[in-house]
């Protein structure tokens, strides 16, 4: 049982006109096995939250805390966060010339676990996960992210999720740019990781579409850098019908 706890998190970025506060006191607790959907309008700070949990150097935490099972995440470098059991989907967005997917995945798995996976199991696990995600076997020999389409990158993200077995995953707009078939395949992968590893999930999304495939236990409305409302899955249905307007008005007049 693991717990990611975010308490009264304030985050700023440096702009031409000085520091700008983007996150204005975010509190959230994600336990193993739980799926929390974070939903909000564009520009509300959702990706800033994901980047702050990932330890992106651009985002300065000015106050508040992030802990995983009581350990101070903010004290950890990005690699240590992965070793501690956090999965941050934006971690490997770059092309890495000359490094094949197979070698990359094995190196990353070794770094995360602190020991190399047994070759026999590893080869089988990679093959099975790739088949389930309907990733072309030829991908294994290709260089990391080189010429991958948006949809292929998303599948590879979920491939990592299944192989690295994180305690808590933060998925930012995993549904963007996916057609319905790809969305289903990717969602099945997330659900498998939840069912087999008890993974907790912070699912950040602008649209309710992905919530038809990945059922949230909790839904949080994110507006103007903070959680404006929280509820169960029914809150997503309400947002689908009514949008964020009422929340944005309330935030503007606050
Ligand atoms: P969301 O993911 O909800 O669309 P973001 O976290 O991307 O929101 O952005 C929140 C706010 O922070 C926006 O007003 C955006 O313009 C601003 N912002 C985020 N990152 C940067 C950046 N690197 N430089 C300038 N402004 C930024
Ligand atoms: Mg679930
Ligand atoms: Mg975003």
Key terms for this structure?
single chain; 254 residues; alpha/beta; Rossmann fold; six-stranded mixed sheet; four-stranded antiparallel sheet; 8 helices; 37% helix; binds adenosine-5'-diphosphate; binds magnesium ion; ATP-binding
Give a structural overview.
There is one protein chain. By secondary structure, this protein is an alpha/beta fold. The longest helix is centred in the last third of the chain and has 18 residues, at 180-197. The chain has eight helices and twelve strands. Helix 5 packs parallel to helix 6 (180-197). Strands 6-9-10-3-11-12 form a six-stranded mixed beta sheet, sandwiched between helices. The chain has one domain (3-253): 3-Layer(aba) Sandwich (Rossmann fold). The structure holds adenosine-5'-diphosphate and magnesium ion (2 copies). Adenosine-5'-diphosphate binds next to strand 1 and helix 1. Residues 13, 15, 22, 40, 42-48, 58 line the site of adenosine-5'-diphosphate (ADP).
What can be said about this structure in brief?
The chain is α/β, with parallel strands linked by helices and 254 residues long. It has helices at 46-54, 78-84, 101-113, 119-132, 150-164, 180-197, 234-242, 245-253; strands spanning 3-15, 18-31, 35-39, 59-68, 71-72, 86-88, 96-100, 143-144, 168-172, 200-205, 218-223, 226-231.
